[in-house]
Write a structure and sequence with these properties.
48% strand
Length: 313
């Protein structure tokens, strides 16, 4: 919002407004003040953004669960006539607003709780200027495979990726550069990763398929002072822009990701029976299915600009 105050008063640069006829009545000038407020808003798309400009069903929700975007809108940049598809008699999508460049299709009694606006302008990627992290490939930790027990792992470059199929695994704060397989979490693996950014590079993807507890907290430079914590504040998962591999997060209600999930060139499958799914989700395309309540708690960061304006006063 912008407030403009226009003044022509005694303390203005050229004083009050002069009066021609007022001088006949002994009044040579008059002072006045006027105020106007303009507001721009509508459709930041910041809670969940599907970036692909042309694919059908780039935002696709099916099943019998609920997808909630708290405090932020849904933005679908595809211009296709079925850019968004919401399917299923028990499917509910909740957000204040959904803004779509193309159009939306409802199938089988599916429900959207907010306001839908179609034919809007695309907003693009609010993180397009986020730099790719740089790492030393000569300092290679190889790969890790964990099946059971309690383990603590350190940040760094993993040329073969990390595969977890059981046990309790703690990720120390920092950036994890995951090449090779990327990150696979399956079985009854329990993951605790505080102050961590997972950078998925190479040709691997992110596969979270287990039924254990997975808690990932993005870097907070007021708490985590490792190099890069300021540049990647609030980013929990970043899939390399040159990596076009699909990723999957099929979690349980014990899934809790605190931070943004940024996969600008990737399709993401999201399923399971619910859980906390970050503060912001930016993908190329997405399909959501399952039976639970999936919640994105948007916190107001990296909002795209509004596209409608009002003169309030």
């Amino acid at each position: 919002a912008v407030k403009v105050v226009a003044r022509k008063t005694a303390d203005s640069a050229n004083g009050e407004a002069p009066l021609f006829f007022g001088q006949l009545f002994g009044i040579s000038s008059v002072g006045f003040t006027r105020t106007a407020i303009a507001y721009a808003g509508g459709g930041t798309g910041a809670g969940l953004i599907a970036l692909n400009p042309s694919k059908p069903q780039s935002f696709y929700v099916r099943g019998s669960g609920t997808l909630s975007v708290d405090g932020g809108f849904i933005q679908v940049d595809s211009r296709h006539s079925v850019a968004a598809r919401i399917q299923g008699s028990k499917t509910i999508v909740e957000a204040p607003e959904m803004n779509i460049v193309g159009n939306v299709q409802y199938v089988g009694g599916a429900f959207f709780s907010g306001t839908v606006k179609t034919g809007v302008e695309p907003h693009g990627d609010p993180l397009v200027r986020l730099p790719d992290p740089v790492w030393d490939k000569t300092d290679d930790r190889g790969g890790i495979q964990i099946k059971n027990g309690m383990h603590t792992i350190e940040p760094g470059y993993y040329s073969e990726g990390i595969r977890l199929t059981g046990g309790f695994v703690t990720f120390q704060p920092g950036i994890y550069y995951l090449d090779g397989e990327g990150l696979y979490v399956g079985g009854n693996t329990n993951v605790e990763a505080e102050g961590v950014m997972l950078y998925i590079t190479g040709s691997g993807g992110l596969q979270v398929l287990g039924n254990g507890s997975v808690h990932i907290t993005a870097p907070d430079p007021t708490v985590h002072t490792w190099p890069g914590s300021y540049a990647y504040e609030g980013i929990a998962i970043f899939q390399d822009r040159e990596n076009k591999s699909n990723s999957k997060i099929i979690g349980t209600s014990l899934l809790d990701i605190e931070g943004s999930i940024y996969m600008p060139r990737n399709h993401l499958d999201v399923g399971g029976d619910g859980g906390g799914f970050g503060s912001q989700l930016i993908v190329d395309t997405i399909e959501v299915f399952g039976t639970g309540d999936l919640i994105i708690r948007y916190e107001g960061r990296r909002a795209a600009a509004g596209f409608r304006s009002w003169l309030v006063k």
